[in-house]
Amino acid sequence: MRELATIQQLKAIYPIQDADFVELAQIMGWRCVVKKGEFQSDDLGVYFEIDSFLPLEERYEFLRKACYRKNEFMGEGLRIKTMRFRGELSQGLFLPLAKFPEISQGNIGDNVTELLNIRKWDIPERVTSGGRQKGNKPHNIPTTDETRIQSKERYLEQLAGHPYYITTKMDGTSCTMYFKDGVFGVCGRNFEYAEPTEDEVKTNKGSPMWAYAYLHKLPEKFNKLGRNIAIQGEFCAPSIQKNRLKLHEPKLFIFDVVNLDTLQYMALEEIRSIAGYLGLDIAPVEEEADSFSYDLAQMLEKARGKYSSGMNKEGIVVRSRENIGRYDSRISFKVINNDFLLKEED
């Protein structure tokens, strides 16, 4: 489960010009508006990340005017999103630990998402992906959900001096296509989609991801390749999200390839090779170099910019080109474009 609500320590407090009742708190790499005088230096509290969906409870009632949301998929609740207050960016929510008596004792970093009944604001896949859900994603294929760098600032230090690359974060919906022991399959973020019947194909009621696979002869190409792999990418199309890329037809941008025999991610060179063989695009590589040296402010600035359509891009994804650290694993994180967040509509 994603760590949407965690116990964190206040790092610093900053005044907000012309604000009498609120101030700006820094928690990890985030800054958010809090009630003036509610926190002292080094206090602990519960931090709720952007896209947390809070239940309707009295302790959150002050959020109702700005955050109340209701739809048939999520029900009623309070959505935490990026906001601007008197020129200052506020990202997330930070509340005193005393407001949560159910947390009998807590340590910095403890995940209390499930305890507090916090869900991620997310419209179900069937809204954008279509098709019949077959079941959960098989073969332990990892879910594509990168950590935001503001929540894991230590990644910047760990990656420093190592080879890396940066790709554009495309704005669509998560798509995985796999080949395992002679079987080809198509998945969204969490679920596998059934191969459409002949009638569904004729009436255009099957999954558009499967339609894309047929169009590009991917089942045949995977079979000829003969490797147990999963390609993961962003499926972008006119009917998905707000079509910020201004596409006229669907397109899959690969950003990862997973070896399903070892569950290891493949290097950028191999991603390029496999994508080329399949006749598919990879997520645009904005930069690749031998020694990472960005700080948080520089990363946030790097994430800004626009797609070729002229719309604000969603951000960037940064990955190490080699395994790092005692766990011998790659470092990977996303940096969301604040301009994109501020202009996002429900």
Largest sheet features: 8 strands, mixed
- Taking pLDDT < 50 over at least 5 consecutive residues as the criterion, the unreliable ranges are none
By CATH, the superfamily of the largest domain comes out as DNA ligase/mRNA capping enzyme
Number of domains: 2
The CATH C-level name of the largest domain is Alpha Beta
How would you describe what is shown here?
Strands 12, 14, 15, 16, 17, 18, 19 and 20 form an eight-stranded mixed beta sheet that branches. 16% of the residues lie in helices and 33% in strands. The protein folds into two domains: 5-120, no CATH class; 125-343, D-amino Acid Aminotransferase, Chain A, domain 1, CATH 3.30.470.30. The protein has 346 residues and is an alpha+beta fold. The two termini are 23 Å apart. The protein is built from eight helices and 23 strands. It is globular, with a radius of gyration of 21 Å. The model has no long low-confidence stretch (mean pLDDT 91).
Secondary structure layout plus pairing:
Blueprint: E1 5-14, E2 22-27, E3 30-35, E4 44-48, E5 52-54, H1 64-67, E6 68-71, E7 75-79, E8 83-85, E9 88-90, E10 93-96, E11 119-120, E12 133-136, H2 154-159, E13 164-169, E14 173-180, E15 183-187, E16 191-193, H3 198-202, H4 208-215, H5 218-225, E17 229-236, E18 251-259, E19 264-265, H6 268-278, E20 281-282, E21 285-289, H7 296-302, E22 315-320, E23 332-336, H8 338-343
Parallel strand pairs: 18-20
Antiparallel strand pairs: 1-2, 1-4, 2-3, 4-10, 5-7, 5-11, 6-7, 8-9, 12-16, 13-21, 13-22, 14-15, 14-17, 15-16, 17-18, 18-19, 22-23
